[in-house]
Amino acid sequence: MGLEIESHIWVPSKTQFVFLFVLCFISLFYFPAKTTANVFDHASSASFHLFQRNFLAIFALSSVIQGSLDVFGEYEFAFDGVGKDQILRTLCIGYAASLMIGSFLGVLSDVIGHRRSCLLFLLLHLVVSVWKILAGNSAIWLTCTCLALASLLFSFSFETWMVVEHSKLGPRQDSLNDMFWLMTFFECASFIGSQVLGNYLINVNPNKSTAPAWKGTFILALVAIITLGRGWKENHEKPALEKYIVSLHRYVVSDKRIWLIGCAQACAHFSTSVFWILWAPTIVADGRQVSLGLIYPCLLGFKMFGSTCFPWFRGPLAIRLEDYLMYAFATMGVALAVVAYDYQDIEVLTIAFYIIHASTGVVLPSLAKLRTMYVPNEVRGGMMCISLMPANAALLFLLLLRRFHGEYMENSMMLSIATMAMFFAAGCILVLKRWGKQLTKAVAQF
């Protein structure tokens, strides 16, 4: 008589979804009315009032396009029977492209204009969609390179464009701060929308292939390109390259405070990238069956909740930016240490995942505000790309080591390195805080 083993698929409980909804509801509808009013400040000019709404709409659409890769990228690998070694190879190609080509995209964006760099992001997705529809998975190096460069453009081009337009139209600083957390909030909501759209397009296909999803991405990218190309104007004064290089050296390379901000940004990028590479293999370790499709929106939901906490820290709680940012990095480090040390209990893992993403929701708008405080707008894109160079180099090195010497670079080791990066980022913010206090004392004595 054979023994039948009942398989059980772990799914998040309904209580988690209710708890997350209540958290976001309370944070959104009960933070100070002053901050809420400043999101769409009627005292601002009508042109900026219109720009805010149009920008958030095009950013949400672009986030749906960007999120489509995260949603059905792993499903496409599984559907096509791609092995672990080939997945590692595609990741290596992507980070190599980000390091060797993407490091100069920030400089290019500052020179040609940030709206054009947003158009380049959409064009890359359009090219990949057409290639996937017509040629499938042939020339995988081309699609990996284009998608890696598109992801890098998405990480800085929209934020930089928004900040530059804000400085031209001239409303209050509170409006800019609110746009930072709104961008994180809209990005996560759009990523969830990508999951809904991707699941629908794949399920209606009898073969369950990703071809309909790529067709949907093509249509969305085409609509966004037409909207952004015809309906927007950018009065960008193209600087001379020699003058730009001098400004980049003067304001970025020679300022140690910007070095600290760049190091913190690089550590955050490195750790979150390691997390997204390993979160699924970690949670399904030892042959466990887990509904990843239900955990994914929970992660984004907690990131949305974290972004809504940003106005609280600078509003009624009145906590200094460097203080809560330092603790947010440290909290992410502790949560990553839990994941690296013991990943046997799914409930413990998911709680650590939620803490990481809630902290990330606080970190992203806070880093954007720090960049606004210290980095001039004319070199903002270049600074953001240059600061990601060490993170991309470290990721490429670890992935190559994992591919050719996997016994020396297991999941726990990579997560441990990501943990140390988070504590290093907290140390950078601590030093930045102390330098700020010393500068304040010097100015007071003067």
Would you write up a description of this structure?
The chain is 80% helix and 1% strand. With 446 residues, the chain is mainly α. Helix 4 (84-100) crosses helix 7 and helix 6 runs antiparallel to helix 9 (211-230). It starts with 8 loop residues before the first strand and ends with a helix. Mean pLDDT is 82; it is low at 1-7, 35-43 and 439-446.
Topology:
Blueprint: E1 9-10, H1 14-29, H2 33-39, H3 46-79, H4 84-100, H5 105-112, H6 114-135, H7 140-169, H8 173-203, H9 211-230, H10 241-253, H11 256-283, E2 289-290, H12 292-314, H13 321-341, H14 346-374, H15 380-404, H16 411-445
Helix pairs in contact: 1-12, 2-8, 3-7, 3-8, 3-9, 4-7, 4-15, 5-6, 5-15, 6-7, 6-9, 7-15, 8-9, 8-12, 8-14, 11-14, 11-15, 11-16, 12-14, 13-14, 13-16
State the main characteristics.
disordered N terminus, disordered C terminus, two-stranded parallel ribbon, globular, mainly alpha, 446 residues, 80% helix
